[in-house]
Design goal:
Length: 291
């Protein structure tokens, strides 16, 4: 079982390169960074994970994920570098193709692009996204990225994203471009989206039992779309980690359900040393190495 860490980086976390290097030295397989652009002063969206429904203050202070990963690429040599997640509809897709290819180039093919459509309507609208069409926007962006990553003369004509034939480099080191992993949580909608256009799925808090139910369905639908179902990768984001959890038995249950990576959020890194927070995962890495 691969173990990753997702770090909400702020000005209080420390240098992302040093944090990523510590994660690599501890034997973690992947280093993920969180993205939010800004928090509007006035909003109606209710944040379900806080008692008062307010969006956490740290969301306004998060470091740009691609700057952080570029720094991490230069201090590490093995660990995978991922966005967990990138709110892709909020970005210009041509600019994003160049940024991601550049990081993949300088990391020697270690970038994973975790993507999502977002849940914060006011943030999306601030960035020029039609919130009601955000999932279509995400799909078109993923399709356009793959064209830009692989074609010498790339063009795309969707309902939302359109651009004429252009030349754009560099190209990613990874053939076909970085793996695009969908971070959607709700199985009612996520399964068909993963099957249609993603390289994998990384929902938050998915149980082993739910994974055993959902993953065969995704593979079945992927095959119906003419895709290789065995090429898909399945991960789970877990909100926090305790030294004694998950147990070895739980890790085995995830493995047996076709989950190949568990990624742990260390929320304390937003206001404390990211290195110290990452070190808390050492017992989990040790248990997972025996599974």
């Amino acid at each position: 079982m691969k173990i990753g860490v997702s770090v909400p980086l702020t000005e209080k976390s420390g240098n992302p390169g040093e944090i990523a290097r510590e994660a690599e030295n501890l034997g973690l397989e992947s280093f993920w960074v969180v993205e939010h652009m800004a928090v509007p002063i006035g909003y109606k969206t209710v944040y379900p994970r806080s008692r008062d429904g307010k969006v956490p203050d740290m969301y306004a202070r998060l470091i740009d994920p691609f700057v952080a990963l570029a720094i991490a690429a230069q201090t590490t040599s093995r660990i995978k570098l991922g966005t967990g997640i990138c709110l892709l509809p909020q970005h210009n897709v041509i600019e994003m193709a160049k940024i991601t290819a550049s990081i993949d180039l300088y990391s020697n093919g270690r970038l994973i692009l975790g993507v999502g459509a977002g849940w914060f309507a006011e943030e999306a609208e601030l960035m020029g996204v039609d919130f009601k069409r955000r999932w279509q926007h995400l799909r078109e962006a993923v399709e356009a990225l793959r064209v830009l990553w692989t074609k010498d003369e790339a063009s795309y004509s969707g309902e939302i994203i359109k651009f004429p034939a252009i030349r754009l480099g560099p190209k990613p080191v990874q053939k076909g471009g970085p793996r695009v992993i969908l971070g959607a949580h709700d199985p009612r909608y996520a399964l068909k989206r993963v099957a249609r256009y993603a390289d994998g799925w990384m929902p938050g808090g998915l149980s082993p039992a739910k994974a055993r139910e959902c993953i065969p369905e995704i593979r079945k639908m992927a095959k119906e779309h003419g895709r290789d179902p065995e090429a898909l990768e399945f991960s789970v984001f877990l909100a926090s980690a305790k030294p004694e959890e998950p147990s070895t038995d739980t890790i085995k249950e995830y493995r047996d359900a076709s989950i190949t990576r568990l990624t742990f959020m260390v929320p304390g890194a937003a206001d404390h040393s990211g290195i110290e927070e990452v070190r808390k995962l050492a017992p989990i890495v040790e248990r997972a190495s025996k599974v």
